Amino acid sequence: MHNNITDVAGITVGHAVDVHGVTGCTVIVAKDGAVCGVDVRGSAPGTRETDALDPINGVEKVHAITLAGGSAFGLEAASGVMNYLAEQQIGLFVEVATVPIVPGAVIFDLLIGSPAAYATKEMGYEAARNAVAGPFENGNVGVGYGATVGKVAGIEHFMKGGLGSSSIQGTEDLVVGAIVAVNAVGDVREPATHEILAGSRNHATGEWLDSCALIKQYANVHTTPGANTTIGAIAINAKLTKAEAKKLAQLTHNALAHTIYPVHTMFDGDTIFVLGTGEKRYQLDYLGQLAIEAMEQAIVLAVKDAKRLANVESYESIRK
Q1: Does domain 5-318 correspond to CATH entry 3.60.70.12?
Q2: Where are the alpha helices (DSSP H) in 62-188?
Q3: Can you give the residue ranges of every domain in the chain?
Q4: pLDDT band (50, 70, 90) for residue 219
């Protein structure tokens, strides 16, 4: 076990980063296909192919999920993922061609790098080509490279977010894995103790500003629309219908509510995908609880393992 989403059989992960532009993308590949559901809770989402995942629609399986930086521009990274998978003959066979089904979501990470930089089609191709099972770093990796958190008080008070992944072993051979890019407008807290790990902070005094308190104190608090967002995926080696996968995506948002304050705001595009890769059925609330716990762990790791970047402090840097 590597304590990441690739502990789920059939799932591989690859990353690509633009170090100079400060952006990146992460691709979760299910080369044999996976039943998929999605739930979008934030009010400023940037997504692709999510309509296909509605249980009333015909597509049954997806072949990859793309998580990318660069706001709406970064949606093009999924096209590069499609190109790579098509070259490998991975996708839905439709008589004359193989068509990979690749939903995706993006974060707005233009605040600390170049505002002209975004996850490109070429980066999507590279990330898909890099996808393997096994260990990978959390923090300043892939889509998490330019992620930040705690922007309610303005960008002068924010901190570094990042990418996190974890897994939980369930009964028998059940494994639930989570991966997430934490780029929230709110503060990230330890779910058990509610301690702020990263968020709005007075960097001169070290005082936490408490984003929820600020919103209540100042009714006209304003941040850049869409300049935030937490996006991620759950993979489970269980048999799911599309409706069940969607329900699990809804339940997994509880993990965001346990760790990010505030969450699902008008400035976030919070989106969770769920992939089912197995043949054995389990009770849905049981799977949901494991998914929530795995996602909570991934969110915490995303900020704890993030590194200081330029002048943006991180959990690690303020504790040295």
Answers
A1: yes
A2: 77-87, 121-129
A3: 5-318
A4: low
